[in-house]
Amino acid sequence: MRLADRIAQCRTPFIVENTKDGSVTHLNSAAAFAKDINSCATRYVLSDELTRLCTALAYSKGASTLACADLLHVPAERVWVEWTEAPWRNELGRYGFQSPVDSASSGWRGVFIQSTSQGRCGLLRTFWAHGESELNVLSSSMEAYFDFDTQEGEDPEVFGRQQRSSICVSDNAVGNADILRRCFRFRFERSWQDYYERAPLTGVQATALSHHALGTIAIDIPVLLAFFLLLATRPGLPRRPLMLERLNEARAKSGKAALLEQIEVFAPLLPEYKSGCSSGSGVSRRSRRLHHVRGHLVRRGSTLFWRVPHLRGNARAGSIRTRTVTWLVDPSISSSRISANQEPSAAQMS
Known about the structure:
The radius of gyration is 22 Å and the shape is globular. 24% of the residues lie in helices and 25% in strands. Strand 15 (296-300) and strand 16 form a beta hairpin. The chain has 350 residues and is an alpha+beta fold. It has 2 domains: 3-265, no CATH class; 273-346, no CATH class. Residues 273-284 and 338-350 have low confidence and may be disordered. The strands form 5 sheets. Strands 3, 4, 5, 6, 7, 8, 9, 11 and 12 form a 9-stranded mixed β-sheet that branches. It has a 5-stranded antiparallel β-sheet with strand order 10-19-16-15-20.
């Protein structure tokens, strides 16, 4: 069962008891979002191939620091996006990330976004699940609010008018191109913040707790932004609605809740490798070892060029027909946000 369905059917509250005084605290959890997910009109399920692509775009050389906030927008006021965890973790491992939440490699991850009608600012929360029990459906204790129109030196506009202490995540090496630093802020959800404020935590404990909570949400955001960026390109991403009529009829007969309607989204067609062989012509200069080259993005106005990850080295591995994919962002989305004098820019990641 997909993650959206599991949350929509989740009824178990998250309750903690103080072992010293017996007091009980209800913390905001996945069950609190059951109605929101059920009523959300726009729900996407990423294919495994698209999950790998978005993760590569987010964390390959140059991709995570591309200054493209003016091209981004959330496609609806309420949006749900989910993907399977295995391809996401595998792709993260290629770029040096360790398992950010736990050691499991199966399950689902998802993000619920609430935004303004223009899709330029909003609030999001992340979710994940392993196993089949309701107790295995978890949500981040932190939420993130964002404003893509934030100017350098400013703070993002607080979504929902809830002014609370927040945390900024940044990469000092990329300067003004760091969308996460400029446009996003992280904060504990209200019930979790109140709970931790009542706990006698030391400064070291509070810092460790914040870092752990950030690890459950911040790492998903670049992947989500890469997906929204691809949605804005022409002609967009291949998609199809999940056909659930017969399955839901069978579930209704057995007394089970109907599964939610969702849109399955696939990766665009990318250049393929074609076979090749070594010329075998005598002795020559020693070949470089076969190695993998990470992808990177370059932007020129409303056009994005992505040099796809590829193999480089011994010709016996085959020759590559092309390594560049060009995406043109829909002018109706980008024209009002791109300066006429904008210079071509390329971003790099250390």
